[in-house]
Design goal:
four-stranded mixed beta sheet, 10 strands
Length: 296
């Protein structure tokens, strides 16, 4: 089972050799078993990949993430039609009733807010109890938009001077990088279970090919918020995103989470979330859905 990610930042040629990723650089060669890699971030314009390698990556179920000239993730390549019940899973997905989808979204939002409260508690910020209390106010479908209210309270306490819309803020660049890697890994897990990621339980944009991934990544976001805060020491630092920043966020999927009684990496958690979502839909039981949790 794939258990690690690859973050490529130096000039290199990548090819396939004996079901391994062969990385050729000026200082020599590196070989990595294809079956060990879950996602690969190509974070340099001076990289070339062979078509046989890309084909093997899709066959093995890797997510290949490409960055733009500013080193921010700009696209992802995902495998499709890999599940033995692809048609059946797609039919199961689109046949879910609106009330059931709303109850699934309620569970997702509650867990996200609970995790946000734990972040505040772990960082000894004020307001953890107030944010945690908001989770109990979330109703089916979050009709009152408690998620947005909790977000305002959460960000104001996590970083009082922070604005998510400020593109010049290093903290935003750091979060956006990590969220993009997270989104690709969650989408990979969903596709691996046979889901069509364009059809969400809450997000429903006709221009978004990853509505379901955007739904299911919500409880994961606070894990990356915590990582970003600790990486920066809680301040902007007034500089541009650098290599150390990108490396830190590219490795975010190796952070630990609780899934039920087990502590696993976020990468494994994403796969378990996808499997439990399929089970919840098959059994029509929201309780079957497992979501990652931060524990204080």
């Amino acid at each position: 089972m794939a258990w690690r990610g690859l973050h490529l930042t130096q000039p290199a040629r990548l090819a396939l050799a004996d079901q391994q990723i062969l990385i050729t650089r000026e200082d020599g060669e590196i070989r990595l078993p294809l079956e060990d890699i879950a996602y690969m971030v190509i974070d340099t314009p001076q990289a070339s990949l062979s078509l046989p390698l890309l084909s093997a990556c899709m066959e093995a179920g890797l997510a290949v993430i490409i960055t733009d000239p500013k080193h921010l993730p700009s696209g992802v390549m995902l495998p499709f039609h890999r599940h033995f019940r692809q048609g059946g899973m797609a039919r199961l997905q689109v046949d879910q009733t609106e009330p059931f989808r709303k109850r699934l979204w309620q569970a997702v939002v509650r867990t996200k807010i609970e995790n946000q409260a734990v972040v505040l508690k772990l960082l000894a910020r004020e307001g953890a109890g107030a944010v945690a209390a908001m989770a109990r106010l979330v109703t089916s479908g979050d009709q009152e938009n408690v998620e947005a209210r909790a977000a305002r309270a959460y960000w104001a306490r996590l970083w009082p001077d922070f604005r998510r819309e400020d593109e010049a803020d290093l903290r935003n660049a750091l979060l956006n990088y990590g969220y993009a890697v997270l989104r690709a890994c969650v989408a990979r897990a969903l596709v691996g279970m046979g889901f069509l990621p364009a059809f969400g339980i809450h997000h429903a944009s006709v221009t978004n090919a990853f509505n379901l991934a955007d739904d299911m990544l919500e409880p994961f976001r606070p894990f990356l918020d915590l990582l970003a805060w600790r990486h920066l020491g809680g301040v902007d630092q007034g500089r541009a995103l650098n290599l150390a920043d990108r490396q830190a966020m590219a490795g975010a999927m190796m952070e630990n989470a609780w899934m039920g009684e087990d502590e696993v990496t976020l990468l494994v958690a994403a796969e378990q979330v996808a499997a439990s979502l399929a089970r919840a839909m098959e059994e029509r039981r929201v309780e079957a859905l497992m979501l990652p949790r931060l524990l204080a």
